[in-house]
Amino acid sequence: xxxATELTKNMFVxxxxxxxMILDTDHVKPGKGPAYVQAKMKNMxxxxxxxxxxxxxxxxxxxxxxxxxxxxxxxASGTRKGPFVFMNNDTFEQVEIDSIALPPEQSQxxxxxxxxxxxxxxxxxxxxxxxxxxxxxxxxxxxxxxGATATNQSKDATVETGAKIKVPPFIEQGQVVRVxxxxxxxxxxx
Length: 190
Known about the structure:
CATH 2.40.50.140, six-stranded antiparallel beta sheet, 1 helix, globular
């Protein structure tokens, strides 16, 4: 059990008999009345996000979650819609992760052999965290326009996974670029 004041971002707790992920906390000390913690929580069953007010002296049940690095192998469907097959490099055990735990906005950045942090609770996959950057090959983009030297210009490009990104005008087909999977933003040449 944890005191409400010990809650931190990205922690998992059981609140109202539901597994919740703490997204944010704010310690409030009003002029009148007792201090409390305003916790923004995501229900891991329903996906709903709710603000909960917890008295500072109250206790919250913390839960043991497991985090481990798994290596992405392939998409079992072949359509980039999952299930996605990952392997534990220590045990060589393979795990299938469906598109609920790994939605399209994340799975569009998966390339073979990429290491991802997978969070599980009681055998159920809660989330898959991709690395901060991924190196991807440009398979399609328009050629550089003549005289396009302004740095704030960008053009559309498609990477090897099929994802679409914006790149500077000097990037050409066949080049490898570094992309942020969290934002889909071009970070530079790889």
